[in-house]
Each structure stands twice: as C-alpha cells, then as structure tokens.
Amino acid sequence: FFFSSRRRHTRCSGVSWARRCVQETDWESIYSSCDETNIYEWLVTYADIQPEIQKYVRSTDKILVLGCGNSRLSEDLYDDNFKNIYNIDISSTVIEQMRLRNLQRLSMEFSVQDVKSLELSLIHI
C-alpha cells in the first residue's frame, strides 16, 4: 500500500491501519474510532493527480467518488472548481462526518451505499 495521512492516531495510523481496513468489514467501527483530525488518503493526494485531472476532466463533469472515506480528495476537487461531486461510502458514520465537514460546499452530495450494489438514481448522475 501507498498510504499517507495528514495526521496519525494510534488506532488509525499508517500501513498497519490500511491492512486492518482491507481485512475488516466493520467500517462503522473504524470511522467511529477516528476523529476529524484523522484524514486518510489511500494512494495519493489530490496535489499528486491534479495536473492529470485538470487535463482530462472538465469543471462541469460529474465526478463519482466511490468509497470516499474521509479523504480530502472531494474537498480539494471542489475547491479547484469541480462542483458536481457525488461521494459514496458504505459507512454512514463517515458519510455524516463528511456532510458536516463540507456544509459550506453546497453542491457536494453524499450517499451511504455499497459499491457492490449501487443505486445511481439516489445520487443524481
């Protein structure tokens, strides 16, 4: 895994946390044990992929972020003028955390869903 976190926490830190996430199915307990300072980027940060995103994605395109977790990816996209962002995660805990964290990003949407059985009509794409 390539894993970076802006902050680290005993229960939710680094590669050991990433391995635990891959093996554990109870995402609710994972996210309920993390506070708002624990933000995780699984592979890369937005800054790492920003040139490619800006090259191939128009600001008016709809962006679906599957398994958004509590990553800053959606926030960074939004702040970079991509406003049609739909975030999905299986954890209702993390979706509520993300909704609260992004109240000022008015057009960003969040939905509790399992990517194995998506209900696209719920996310307006």
Q: How would you characterize this protein structure?
A:
- The protein has 125 residues and is of the alpha/beta class.
- It is built from five helices and five strands; from the N terminus they run E-H-H-E-H-E-H-E-H-E.
- The protein has helices at residues 14-23, 27-32, 46-56, 73-79, 92-101; strands at 4-5, 40-41, 63-66, 85-89, 109-112.
- The strands form two sheets. The chain has a three-stranded parallel β-sheet, covered by helices on one side.
- Strand 4, helix 5 and strand 5 form a beta-alpha-beta unit.
- The longest helix has 11 residues, at 46-56.
- The radius of gyration is 14 Å and the shape is globular.
- Residues 1-13 have low confidence and may be disordered.
- Count of DSSP H/I helices: 5
Distance between the termini: 31 Å
Oligomer state equals single chain
Q: Supply the helix-strand structural class.
A: alpha/beta
Specify the overall morphology: globular
Find the count of extended strands (DSSP E, 2+ residues): 5
- The percentage of residues in β strands lies in 5-15%
Compute the gyration radius: what is it?
A: 14 Å
Query: Biggest β-sheet, characterized?
Result: 3 strands, parallel
* Mean pLDDT across all amino acids: 79
Low-confidence segments: 1-13
Helix content: 25-40%
User: How would you spell out the order of helices and strands?
Assistant: EHHEHEHEHE
Give the strand order, joined by hyphens, for the main sheet. Answer: 3-4-5
